[in-house]
Design goal:
By secondary structure, the protein is of the alpha+beta class. Helices cover about 40% and strands about 10% of the residues. The chain has two domains: about 160 residues, no CATH class; about 200 residues, Cyclophilin-like (Cyclophilin). Strands 3-4-6-5-7-2-1-8 form an eight-stranded antiparallel beta sheet. About 35% of the residues are buried.
Length: about 475
């Protein structure tokens, strides 16, 4: 019988114990590792939850900010102030190229909000608009801290300064009008150094004014309006210019007399007078009969320079625009003169006369004068038939010539505007005929004589050979 030595038993016992202890240590290490893993996971969950909460909070804040701004922007008509000559600075489109922005600001007039300005056609509408604008201004000011230092700060301030502008020029009371414009200048003074290099606000939109960015153009507009208020001791009033007498003589020698509202639309009146004195309207004709609005459209030099090419009668343009001067004081109505639109501004030549009150109160053209005598001579012209040939862009083109012999003006403007804009008359050259024009001229050419009926004298027959007419009875 074999017996184990004491040394062997001791070694075996020690090894077993050590193995047990090692197993316990491994379990403890595994437990510690699991605890660390659980703690790490818990911390990670807290971090993720905090991040999600922050994102949700930021998203909610961004949504709230967007709603506040949307309320303000909805009250801004797509209409440039007088100094912009048709280019529209607007607080939208923050991340776009400069060329794209330039295109958008000149093409946004198709937006429905461009009609808002024309809808402010009387004191009640204007008063309601001012109230809504002032409410939006208060809401923006109450939430100013939300926008400070954010990506939307420039949008916030630009919306605020524009609201002050539009509220100001629609306010009749001089003190309130001035207060809005002065507040606008304060906001702009803070914006100009802060956002001078902004992708949109720092843009120079008008090639004729390369030293002015958008904010500085707004600043000029506000200063010009304040200067007007100081010069004339109040806002524009519906008072005809006492220094002007305008007479339009028709081809049948009938005469139509106008008064002009230079205190309401000084730039438009100055441009109209410059055109008259440069002979733009002498010998022209009506190029459009807008039966729906009751408007006779005239003033296109091509009706004189190309009298036999009616296809281009609405296309004469000098390449510039007259600053828009829409005003709720001058509501469109029967007998009033207006300038045709060109983008956000007015056409340099084309004007119209309303022969009836328009059905639609939304009128986006600048009204600047009124017929005092001779409107009854023009009203029958509204019944003139218009061309309906396919492809004609001027859908108001009359089928007969409605001629104007001359337009003359006596006197000088008693209430001239500021010198920030001057009319620059330039009559364009008549372009070469296009295939579309040639096709139109062919379509309206008088038809040839009808073929002779049976029994009529044949070609070459003498009068003696022709059958004698039957006698009565």
């Amino acid at each position: 019988m074999t017996t184990k030595s004491p040394e062997k038993s001791k070694t075996a016992k020690t090894s077993w114990w050590e193995r047990l202890m090692e197993t316990s240590e491994d379990a403890e290490a595994g437990s510690n590792f699991l605890k660390k893993l659980l703690w790490g996971g818990a911390i990670l969950c807290v971090i993720v939850a905090g991040w999600l909460f922050f994102q949700k909070s930021s998203h909610s804040k961004a949504e709230a900010n967007a709603q506040i701004l949307a309320h303000a922007l909805a009250l801004l008509p797509d209409q440039a102030p007088p100094e912009f000559e048709g280019l529209l600075p607007h607080p939208r489109f923050p991340q776009i190229s400069l060329s794209r922005y330039h295109y958008l600001v000149t093409s946004m007039q198709n937006n429905q909000r461009s009609r808002l300005w024309g809808a402010l056609s009387d004191h009640e509408n204007a008063k309601k608009y001012v109230g809504e604008a002032e409410s939006a201004i208060e809401e923006l000011n109450d939430n100013a801290s939300r926008f400070q230092g954010s990506d939307d700060e420039w949008l916030f301030k630009n919306a605020l300064q524009q609201l002050h502008w539009f509220a100001g020029i629609n306010t009749i009371e001089t003190a309130a009008r001035k207060a809005h414009l002065q507040k606008q200048l304060e906001i702009l003074a803070d914006m100009i150094p802060t956002f001078k290099n902004h992708v949109v606000l720092g843009l120079h939109p008008d090639p004729a004014k390369p030293d002015k960015n958008v904010m500085e153009l707004w600043e000029d507009a506000a200063k010009a309006e304040l200067k007007f208020l100081d010069t004339h001791k109040g806002p524009p009033t519906l008072e005809p210019d006492p220094g002007l007498k305008v007479t339009l003589t028709l081809e049948n020698d009938g005469q139509v007399a106008f008064v002009l509202y230079s205190r309401v639309a000084p730039k438009t009146v100055a441009n109209f007078i410059a055109n008259i004195r440069d002979g733009v309207y002498d010998g022209t004709a009506v190029y459009g009969v807008d039966k729906a609005r009751g408007a006779l459209l005239m003033g296109d030099p091509f009706t004189r320079l190309a009298p036999d090419r009616p296809f281009i009668w609405d296309k004469a343009d000098s390449g510039y625009a007259v600053p828009g001067e829409l005003n709720p004081l001058l509501k469109p109505k029967k007998g009033r003169l207006f300038m045709a639109r060109k983008g956000a501004a007015s056409h340099p030549f084309h004007f119209g006369i309303l022969t009836k009150d328009p059905d639609n109160p939304a009128f986006s053209e600048t009204v600047f004068g009124e017929v005092t005598e001779g409107l009854d001579l023009l009203i029958p012209w509204l019944d003139t038939e218009v061309h309906d040939e396919v492809g004609l862009t001027n859908t108001f083109l009359p089928r007969v010539r409605l001629g104007i012999k001359s337009v003359v003006v006596e006197g000088n403007i008693a209430y001239p505007g500021d010198d920030s804009w001057k009319p620059h008359v330039k009559i364009p050259e008549v372009p070469e005929a296009t295939p579309a024009e040639e096709k139109f001229m062919e379509a309206i050419k008088p038809s040839e004589e009808e073929p002779k009926k049976e029994g009529d004298a044949k070609e070459g027959d003498s009068e003696e050979d022709a059958p004698a007419p039957k006698k009565d009875g």
